[in-house]
Amino acid sequence: MKRLLRAAAILLSVAAGGVSYAQQAPSAPNTQPQAQTQAPAPAAAVPAPAAVSAETKAARAKLDGFKVDLDQKEAAIQGRTMPDADLQNIRLQIEPILTEIRTVIDEQAPKLEASRQRLSQLGPKPEKGQPEESADVAKDRAEREAAVAELDETQRLGRALLVQAEQLNTQIGDLRRAGFTRSLFEQSDGILSPSLWMNVVSAVPRELRALGIVLGDALEQLQRSTSLGVLLLLGLAIGVAIALYVGRRSIAPRLVKRDPAIADPARRSRLLAALGVLALGAGPAIAGSWIVWVAFDSADIVQPRLEQVVRALLSGLAFIAFVRALIDAILAPDHTSWRLIPVRDASATRIMSFSVTLATIMVIGKVIEAFNTAIAAALPITVITRAIFALAVALVFAELLRRFAARENQDEACLGPYVAQDVDIGGPLRSFGWFLVALIVGSVLGGYVALASFLIDQAVWISIIVALLVLGVALADEFIGGSLRGQTKLATALQANTGLRRRSLEQIGVLGSGIARLALIVVGVLLVLAPWGIESTDVTGSLRAMFFGFNVGDVTISLSSILFAALLFAAAFAVTRMIQRWLTNTFLPATELDAGLRNSISTAAGYVGIITAGMLAISYLGLSLERVTIVAGALSVGIGFGLQSIVNNFISGLILLWERPIRVGDLVVVGDGEGYVRRINVRSTEIQAFDRSTIIVPNSNLISGIVRNRVRNDRVGRVLVSIPVPRASDPDQVAEIMRKAALAHREVMSEPAPRVLFKKVTENTIDFDVVCFVDDIDAAGRVSSDIYFEIFRGLRKAGIGAPAPAPAPEPEEPADEAPKAEEKEEETLTLLKDKTPA
């Protein structure tokens, strides 16, 4: 409406100008001299561009602030070696900036597209020699060009800042990994180096004095902060912690009963018991350590330098309890039938004891390292401490591997001669374990103590993650997939309330457990990679780019757009199916259309709906006509080479629905098959034979082949009854009996009237056919049977019996044996003549 009013205003102004010019035309000669003295009128001034909107100004100001912030951070990390904590802090500050920049870009993109579309409606600027556009159009064009330019500059600035932030993020990640690698492979004197031991001996007196000073300060802090209330609080906290830590060994068996009398408990019972053992075995110890730490922190009696020592001790006690509870939950050394992993009792007990030993050694080492940090111990003291505990862990691990190998050798000796078996996972794991032990020992001897400590920490960390993954995956399979399988209460309730079939629920359960598995595995992998400098932000950044869109040339690929387009297509497809179902079951049956036409209308509605759904999805993806044309061209090449038959059948199906040579419900004969058309699909047509089997016929065969449609024009059916009677019977009497039998049936049509045909005369019989018609061909078989019964009753009543069976044909002698028979007959006659007396 606005465009119409604007066009009308322009026309009126032009008309008014023309009228005024016409009115002034007669006086032109009188004013010509005066006109010659007047200066030429100035050209119309170009309208000034409109002011930029407040929203665009705010977005530009925000982007300018982000640019200043990013430039400062980029300058801070250039040419400097920063601690890992500072780099991580800068990276955490960049993440919200990235999010804000993406938000600005996403907000400005639709505005820019809308402005470009509005500008395109004005068309191109007039070229030289063409009539100039009006002042209103020029002003509107200038405003729209200014808006497009401002929005485009904002978009480009936002994209440039986004690239800068992502590059800065990547640079920080590279710096962190470089620092991690540098610290990991920092070499010092090996444990066998005499200079290392000499430095340790020379540093011991100073470290002892430092330890005495730290302990003295801690004692003084304790005396200053201690009061009766504080002592009571600390005593209560330590007492509760000891009770929880010691009592957890007896709490779990009482609350979680793993009955050894049950030889084969259910998998769900074993998983619940394992979860209970883990929670009750580790939970009280963790709670006790936390209570003691809160009490010490509240009382403020721990010197700041010793806080990390107390923290290492308390967390170490909780860690030992957690390791023991985790092994007990999965391997159940004292309850064979409740074990989640099938291992021998001796192996389970051995793994439990060695795991607790390894955890204890690691905790002691961490506590001593915390003491070294508290007293600012010299580097040789720190190196020798780490080296000794790394060797201790390696020796314990090696002893565990040796005992497993010895046990396996004993088992093989008891079993007799060696028999080749499938390789299990134990062999490769032991090989990797020995390799890890050798690597730890070699690192300690070579002076790479940090690498040895890191390998030990990662081996323990990965083992814990794998054990938790085993338990978590088993729980997901049982409680997600198992709850929807079979006759469980949840599955039965869902079937009753939602109407889903059992098979559908099982599929949903399998899909849900698979998604849970994948999520657990991804989390486990991220936890394993975290100490190596690969964090979740490294992965989530790529996932975010994949989900929200990344550019490949001029094409933006966005998983979210693809997902929403698929959902839009699914919704439109569901609406199409609902409309089809309404047409098939409600509307079309209320009309007087035949079944075939109703099926054609329903199928055509389905095609239109699917095409519409596809167009909606394509438009949501933002695909232009040129890109769709390219894809269509590629598809046409593929169709030309490999999909000819499919396209041929599809087009043939459309022709069947349009021309309707056969319809749903028609009785057709195709080749050797005969039956009723039940469905015309995209590729083929389903025909139900009389034996209830289904004949699948490609649509192209129905178009190019010969098809007999018995009900193409109407449903009148022909009934043919053939009767043989003895040759001596009266033909007129037989014909009359057959005619009366046909006329007596109430479903036989009177017009055309039934006819009796004298078909042929054989050696023993004369054959008659009675031909009649019925209104519905579906009744032809039943009417034919009724007429047969009636004819035979009439023939029996008239005394006309069944024809005599034809004599069996005499076997003919083979042609090559006929001369031999004649020769035998002549020989017999000759013998008879010879024996006859003269």
From TrEMBL:
Compartments where found: Cell membrane
Mechanosensitive ion channel MscS domain residues: 646-709
UniProt entry keywords in alphabetical sequence: Cell membrane, Membrane, Signal, Transmembrane, Transmembrane helix
Pfam families from the UniProt entry: DUF3772, MS_channel_2nd, MS_channel_3rd
Transmembrane segments: 228-247, 271-296, 308-327, 348-368, 374-398, 432-454, 460-480, 510-534, 546-575, 604-623, 629-658
All copies of domain DUF3772, residue ranges: 156-212
Family membership noted in the UniProt record: Belongs to the MscS (TC 1.A.23) family.
Protein name (record): Mechanosensitive ion channel protein MscS
Organism: Microvirga ossetica
